[in-house]
Design brief:
The protein has 162 residues and is of the alpha+beta class. The protein has one domain: START domain (Alpha-D-Glucose-1,6-Bisphosphate, Chain A, domain 4). It is 34% helix and 44% strand. It has four helices and seven strands; from the N terminus they run βααββαββββα. It has a seven-stranded antiparallel beta sheet with strand order 1-7-6-5-4-3-2. β4 and β5 form a beta hairpin. α2 crosses α4. It is globular and about 45 Å long. The protein starts with a strand and ends with a helix.
Length: 162
């Protein structure tokens, strides 16, 4: 079945500036650092019709409920791939290699009056009998927290570059 995560981030900047920022590996590294990940790497790959940005990170499982740490262990490796076929839309795939679940969805950017909204729609699916719903809810909450950090870092970055 899965859990749906829908979150809107806003930036006081034109869509072109927000798109460029989201494709900047340095920006993604800064977001990871603010999220206090153990390690991270971000890379940008040009495609015939757009770009692909890949963010790999390792997060500590400290502070997670015991039912979650039994599944993931002491740390969680996360691989996020965004495929931007156009400047206003990306497909998103997030995996936790070796773990029974995935996250997929989209990012859509829209601009109005110099303000850009980043609409993130993600479906979280975990294939673990009995606790799937609890794990999906926890992952959804973690995603929203990470998106809030991304929004804060992005707003600061866009203000510095204005």
């Amino acid at each position: 079945m899965g859990t749906r995560v829908s979150h809107t981030l806003t930036y006081d900047a034109p869509l072109a500036h927000v798109h460029a920022m989201l494709l900047d590996p340095d920006f993604r590294q800064e977001v990871c650092a603010r999220c206090k990940v153990v390690s991270s790497a971000a890379s940008l790959e040009p495609l015939p019709t757009g770009h692909r940005i890949t963010i790999e990170q390792v997060q500590s499982a400290a502070g997670l409920p015991s039912f979650a740490t039994r599944i993931v262990g002491d740390s969680i490796r996360i691989v996020q791939v965004e495929t931007w076929a156009a400047s206003d839309r990306a497909d998103v795939e997030i995996t936790i290699p070796g773990k029974p679940g995935e996250i997929s969805g989209s990012i859509v950017l829209t601009e109005s009056g110099g303000v850009t909204a980043q609409q993130v729609e993600l479906d979280v699916r975990v294939r673990i009998p009995l606790v799937a719903g609890k794990v999906e809810k926890l992952v959804g909450e973690m995603l929203v927290k990470a998106l809030s950090v991304e929004n804060t870092v992005g707003r600061e970055r866009l203000t510095r570059s204005a």
